[in-house]
Write a sequence for this structure.
């Protein structure tokens, strides 16, 4: 079972509890498996779907479905269904009732996996970088997290603008539900990522991948 990265866990603040009697239903919804927390008792696994981070406790999932969860790689495309009692601004607990893997290939998954890691804007003089962990976009200054955003990807930004290719909308954790930014992914390889600011005026921003931090 993989341990969900600590920085990502800090953005998934949920209170695990059994769903209330008047639970709402999450119909089958596409999303991405984020990972499992091996330190939690009982174990917890996380998804990103429908603009929320969903936490599934081992006690709120059929054993066969939870076993399948623990075998999935990070960012595996999935379709989930279940029941929930209430929604926080960016997260919710889910009693899992359905889990399946899509038959068709997810067109964004290759880019999402390539984006994982820490990136620094070219020409940046201050010690600023972005750290992408799962579906979290973390702004780092001097090695400390200064801002945390949820990532949503698709053909269009939150305002409906289709920039071409993959649009990356960012939603600040703990803020109102409106998108704070939208980037168009123009290019990515092992060392370089070029993004274009769709909602703002920064234009194209080129990033260079930083080596993994030691420890």
């Amino acid at each position: 079972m993989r341990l969900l990265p600590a920085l990502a866990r800090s953005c998934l603040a949920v209170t695990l509890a059994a769903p209330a009697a008047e639970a709402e239903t999450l119909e089958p919804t596409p999303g991405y498996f984020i990972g499992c927390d091996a330190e939690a008792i009982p174990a917890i696994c996380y998804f990103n779907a429908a603009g929320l981070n969903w936490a599934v406790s081992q006690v709120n999932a059929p054993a066969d479905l939870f076993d399948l969860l623990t075998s999935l790689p990070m960012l595996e495309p999935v379709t989930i269904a279940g029941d929930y009692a209430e929604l926080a601004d960016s997260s919710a607990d889910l009693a899992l009732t359905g889990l399946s893997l899509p038959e068709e290939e997810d067109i964004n998954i290759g880019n999402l996996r390539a984006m994982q890691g820490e990136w620094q804007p070219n020409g940046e003089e201050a010690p600023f970088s972005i750290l992408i962990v799962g579906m979290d976009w973390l702004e780092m200054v001097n090695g400390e997290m200064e801002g945390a955003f949820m990532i949503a990807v698709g053909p269009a930004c939150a305002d409906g603008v289709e920039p071409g290719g993959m649009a990356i909308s960012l939603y600040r954790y703990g803020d109102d539900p409106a998108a704070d930014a939208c980037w168009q992914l123009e290019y990515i390889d092992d060392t370089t990522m070029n993004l274009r600011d769709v909602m703002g005026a920064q234009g194209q921003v080129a990033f260079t991948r930083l080596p993994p931090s030691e420890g």
Q: What stands out?
A: The helical segments are 6-10, 63-70, 109-115.
